[in-house]
Amino acid sequence: MSADRKPIIAANWKMHHDHLVAIQVVQKLSYALEPSDYDTCDIVICPPFTGIRSIQNLLEGDKIPLLLGAQSCHWEDEGAFTGEVAPPMLARMNVSYVIAGHSERRQLFGETDEIVNKKARAILKHGMNPIVCVGETLEEREAGATDERVATQTRAAFASIKSPEAERCVVAYEPIWAIGTGRNATPDDANTTIGVIRNVLRELYREVADAMRIQYGGSVKPGNIADLMAMPEIDGALVGGASLDPGDFSQIIRFRT
Ligand code: PGA
Questions:
Q1: pLDDT computed for residue 47 by the predictor
Q2: d(CA 16, ligand 1 centre) in Å
Q3: Which domain holds residue 107?
Q4: Residue among 238, 244, 245, 249 to mutate when testing ligand 1 (max atoms within 8 A of CB)
Q5: Do the beta carbons of residue 74 and residue 86 sit within 8 Å?
Q6: What ranges in the chain are assigned the alpha helix state H?
Q7: Which CATH number is 78's domain given?
Q8: Which one of 28, 38, 79, 106 counts the least CB within 10 Å of its CB?
Q9: Distance separating alpha carbons of residues 55 and 66, to the nearest angstrom
Q10: Which residue in 104, 111, 165, 174 is the catalytic one?
Q11: 25 domain residue, yes or no
């Protein structure tokens, strides 16, 4: 964590919590948090699409300063794309962050670097902020290809995005072998690879790279968040499993106490 960048901790609920459960979880989370938690950290909830409108109503009705996110979107504004959700539809529900290129989307749904770039640009175009995910497989790590892999993914995701817009982007470094496995990268390893990503951003965006936030994701839990956040390059976390429970997630957000 660096004093110059506000930490951002995001919940990626994946395909969990219907809209009724989502309301309860967000209510419980809001009871567990203090006003100062929102000042020290941007807190984002990315529910499945079906929960977004319900959570929007709750946050606006009860004036809860949690930020709303989505897990994906299409890159076109509208069209014959059965089953897809368009960026302007999300923007209309006051979604502020959208995940682009999560490894599950890349591995299970064929998202390429080019698609991730199209999505990131579409998210920016509609005034929202992409959370661009990058990360290596276990084979890539064991072959010593981690740095090259994340650098390639980062360059591709940011193709033709200019500095002022890049500054609004968040990058999530998520080693694939650490997602949902209970096996997290050591804080030192995560810090080193995030440093590689930041150097790529410095090449691309000399003026703003040091203001851009890079999260770690992969088996983040109440028990390991403090050590991760103690690292100078790690600006927050993208949390899957442990974000489903409001008690666990609030402990992650309140990692300082
Ligand atoms: P996990 O998922 O925290 O359950 O490992 C992280 C992610 O996929 O974003």
A1: 98
A2: 13
A3: 8-253
A4: 238
A5: yes
A6: 19-32, 35-40, 49-61, 87-91, 103-109, 113-125, 138-142, 146-157, 163-166, 187-204, 225-229, 246-253
A7: 3.20.20.70
A8: 79
A9: 10
A10: 174
A11: yes
Residue 254 CB contacts under 8 Å (≥ 6 apart), including other chains:
33, 34, 37
Token pair belonging to 87:
């960026």
SS3 at position 239: strand
Residue 175 near ligand 1, beta carbon < 6 Å: no
Mean pLDDT within 61-74: 98
Asked about 74 being catalytic, the answer comes back as no
For residue 243, name the pLDDT band (cuts at 50, 70, 90).
very high
Taking the C-alpha atoms of residue 218 and residue 134, their distance in angstroms, rounded to an integer, is 12
Is residue 135 lining ligand 1, measured as CB closer than 6 Å?
Answer: no
pTM: 0.97
Please identify, by atom number, the ligand 1 atom nearest to the C-alpha of residue 181: 5
Q: Is 179 in the pocket of ligand 1 (CB under 6 A)?
A: yes
* Confidence at 184, pLDDT banded by 50, 70, 90: confident
Structural domains counted in the chain:
1
Residue 2 lies inside a defined structural domain of this protein: no
- Rounded CA gap, 148 and 170, in Å? 20
Compute the distance from residue 207 Cα to the ligand 1 centre, in Å.
31
- From the candidates 17, 74, 102, 140, which is the catalytic residue? 102
Alpha carbon 66 to its chain centroid, in Å, reads 14
Closest Cα to atom 6 of ligand 1: 240
